[in-house]
Amino acid sequence: MRSVAAAVSGWGRFPVEPAQLHRPERWSELAEIVRSAESARGVISRGLGRAYGDAASNKNGAVLLHTRFDRLLAFDAASGALEAEAGISLAELLRVFVPRGFFLPVTPGTKFVTLGGAIAADVHGKNHHRDGSLFSALESLRLLTAAGEILDCSRAENREAFLATVGGMGLTGIILSARLRLRPIESAYLRVDQERTRDLDETLERFASGDDAMQFSSAWIDCLATGRSLGRCVLFRGNWLARAELPAKLRGAPLRVHRQRLPSVPIDFPNFTLNRLSMGAFNVAYYAAHPTRLGFAQHYDSHFYPLDVAHGWNRIWGPRGFVQYQLVVPLESGREALVRVLECCAASGLGSFLTVLKKFGAGNEAILSFPRPGYTLTLDFAQCGERLVALARALDRIVLAHGGRVYLAKDALLDRETFAAMYPEAARFRALKAQLDPEQRFSSSLARRVGLADAR
Prior knowledge:
Layout: E1 3-8, E2 17-22, H1 27-36, E3 43-46, E4 62-65, E5 72-76, E6 81-85, H2 90-97, E7 102-103, H3 115-120, H4 128-131, E8 138-144, E9 150-154, H5 159-165, E10 174-181, E11 183-184, E12 189-196, H6 200-210, E13 216-221, E14 233-240, H7 276-289, E15 293-299, H8 300-304, E16 322-329, H9 334-348, E17 355-360, E18 374-382, H10 386-401, E19 405-406, H11 416-422, H12 426-436, H13 445-450
Parallel strand pairs: 2-4, 3-4
Antiparallel strand pairs: 1-2, 5-6, 6-10, 7-11, 8-9, 8-10, 12-14, 12-15, 13-14, 13-17, 16-18, 16-19, 17-18
């Protein structure tokens, strides 16, 4: 069984770290790799590399690729219940099941993630305010532990392992397969309302007054707008269209799947391409190009995955890479927190190329799950060394002061003390991890940085 030394990074291309990559062909090889991991850094699973920071990196340790484990195991068309191996991608699930009239119960902003990675990060989507995160649709999973034991985990069986694994960033063991329930759809299209707002108050008012009637909701925010325009946005909300509601030109292929061949960004852009001037021009142009427009039909691919239009879009940030910072703050203090965050970003001079706001519904029982009732804001920053670290620390203080937290699947900069304050149940997670993995064989650069795992 071969392994290859390689430089590994997340989707943000920062940090870039040396690791030993393993790509096993059979389940039987997984336990052998875990047992034979000689480094003090242990082993971590990796899907398609779409965690932004170092969650699926393992500096000077082993990284386990799951791309060979992508089989569909069972499907019940009457109930939508699907069982599949953890290495299958959401893009493949869509390719197979959209033409059959089914869609994912929850999807993040890219389809190029594996099912196992989605579970490990407990992904959420534009429907969280109504349907929750992936945890809500997940019925069970099979977990390979450090001892080589396979556990069937669900809300009823091996419950504590289930609650630690969903959202547990791959630190409890290897997710082999999972069972979840797909959602029936009559078409691959949504009826979408696109609305432009003047400022943050109008943005939050639209969320409060209209989200209950819409299954999907998110907003692009002009992060560089200040003064009276602070928090201005373009709000996108939609519901699935029934087949009979489709415009005549779409009725011939109501369940058309996404495009299979996509263009690629061929080279790294120069580091100076994305700067405050170019981002400001982009924000002004984007806002102007999206006037209020109600009730138009939009394919799911354009609505849920606008950034998937080109492979390798992360290369536009140049070789320096970037950091995505996603926070959630409670509803009751959400406006004040968002104002402070947006003002802090504007004052820093760094600017976020893409800023997205969503409203979360209820949280769940998974121990390290990120979502909780409130507003979640996602910001992208060019990696620029100490200036970015200083901004991240300032944002951490704002988020903490308002009872919020940041998302581990996006994080690259959080320190131990701040993580412990944001995730008070981390001690419970570490205790469960110690039972499932007493020798700390499952580890990652993220886990060591925030104190969820230590070197063996």
